[in-house]
Every structure is written in structure tokens, then in C-alpha cells.
Design goal:
The complex is a heterodimer. By secondary structure, chain A is mainly β. Helices cover about 0% and strands about 50% of the residues of chain A. Chain B is about 0% helix and about 50% strand. In chain B, strands 2, 5, 6, 10, 11 and 12 form a six-stranded mixed sheet that branches. In chain B, a hairpin with a 2-residue loop joins strand 7 and strand 8. The radius of gyration of chain B is 14 Å and the shape is globular. Chain B starts with a strand and ends with a strand. Classes of the chains: A mainly beta, B mainly beta.
Chain lengths: ~120, ~120
């Protein structure tokens, strides 16, 4: 079965640079979520989209923005990168209806290192 | 806001034995979902099991089962016949079903499970 695809898998950036993370959800899933997991921490919710519209926002810095496109892929844009942004960034997708409603399936993550 | 608490930072079990991981949560919502996710050293987040709050019957998935106590806001995971491949970090997670902030997962701090051969 198709899974969530994230690219790139690893990314190294310098402080103050910009990074763009991409996510391709499971086909026909209507909701996409982004999470940030720091070292030794649990994942923290950043933002979500339902049918290409932003549906919820967590503790996402103003330097970060995200969108979902007409083909349902999503991008997380991160500007003015700081050392503290180094983390594993997950994308997940789900349906909000049906027998598997709210089951989120995660991509492999993008490991961002800011130097 | 909802909170999820896992009070066992680490647990260990002998291969083929049974282990139970604990989780408590706090919410004022009546309609929600609870999950257990497994994160092996690869850091991939793998869905283990889901429980719907309005269902009294405890969910089971092969060797994995839950004990859902809604009144006590407790949601434990039992792993039977433990295997070496079960070694991982296990996260308990909560999401609202509908209303505001539906779907987003709130995670506990995680429990590291070690399986001894």
C-alpha cells in the first residue's frame, strides 16, 4: 500500500537560511499534518490542512509557513533558520470519515540540521 | 487543552513474556480517539492501535491490546508474546474527533521498551 512520502530525507542548512520540506500524503487522504520532534522529545503539532484549507495551527513560529496544493501535496517553508530548528519533521495524513477515521499515517520524516 | 501522561520512562520485558505500558490523559471532550504509536530506532512513527472513546470494547490488534478505562481516563497497552522487534519507544496519543482542533495528535512523553532475549 502507498505510504506518506517526504523529501528530502536529510537537509543541512546554515543559520538564517531557508528550507522547504515536501510531503505527499496517502492517495485519497483528506487531511495532512506536520509535526516537529526534537531530540529526546515527543512530536509537537505544527499545522494541519483539510482539503487544502488550513484547519488548525499549533506552536508554529511565524518564520514557518505551510500550504497544501491542488494535487494535495504539502510544503513546509522555514525561513531565518535557527539552531533550535534542528529536528525531525514529520508529515502525516489521514481521513476524517470512515472506518479508519483519524488514523494518522506518518512519513519517514525529514531530518533538518541547522549549523 | 488536552494532556497525555506516560509515567514509565522505561520498561523491560523478557522475550515471549507480556508487558503493559501505562498512559493517562485529561480532556473535557466526550468524543475522541486514543492511539499507541511505536517509534523504533529508525525514528519512523508506526501506528500500533486505535481506540474510539465511544466504544466500550477494548481494541485489539494481534498481540497488542488496550485496557481503556474512560472514567479513569486511563489507556494502557498490553503486548503479549513480546518479540525482539517490539523494542522501541512507545507513544500514547490523543486526538479530538470533531469540534475545534480535531485530528491533531497530542503525545505523551514516551516509554522506552527493551526486550531481553
Amino acid at each position: 500500500a502507498a505510504g506518506v512520502i517526504q523529501s528530502p530525507r536529510h537537509l543541512i542548512k546554515e543559520k538564517r537560511e531557508t528550507a522547504t520540506l515536501k510531503c505527499y500524503p496517502i492517495p485519497r487522504h483528506d487531511t495532512v499534518y506536520w509535526y516537529q520532534q526534537g531530540p529526546g522529545q515527543d512530536p509537537q503539532f505544527l499545522i494541519s490542512f483539510y482539503e487544502k484549507m488550513q484547519s488548525d495551527k499549533g506552536s508554529i513560529p511565524d518564520r514557518f509557513s505551510a500550504q497544501q496544493f491542488s494535487d494535495y501535496h504539502s510544503e513546509l517553508n522555514m525561513s531565518s533558520l535557527e539552531l533550535g530548528d534542528s529536528a525531525l519533521y514529520f508529515c502525516a495524513s489521514s481521513l476524517v470519515t470512515g472506518a479508519r477515521a483519524y488514523e494518522q499515517y506518518f512519513g519517514p520524516g525529514t531530518r533538518l540540521t541547522v549549523t | 487543552a488536552q494532556t497525555v501522561t506516560q509515567s514509565q520512562p522505561e520498561m523491560s520485558v523478557q522475550e515471549a513474556e507480556t508487558v503493559t505500558l501505562s498512559c493517562t490523559y485529561d480532556t473535557s471532550e466526550s468524543d475522541y480517539y486514543l492511539f499507541w504509536y511505536k517509534q523504533p530506532p529508525s525514528r519512523q512513527m508506526i501506528l500500533v492501535i486505535r481506540q474510539e472513546a465511544y466504544k466500550q470494547q477494548n481494541a485489539t490488534e494481534n498481540r497488542f491490546s488496550v485496557n481503556f478505562q474512560k472514567a479513569a481516563k486511563s489507556f494502557s497497552l498490553k503486548i503479549s508474546d513480546s518479540q525482539l522487534g517490539d523494542a522501541a519507544m512507545y507513544f500514547c496519543a490523543y486526538s479530538n474527533a470533531g469540534g475545534t482542533s480535531y485530528g491533531k495528535l497530542t503525545f505523551g512523553q514516551g516509554t522506552i521498551l527493551t526486550v531481553h532475549p
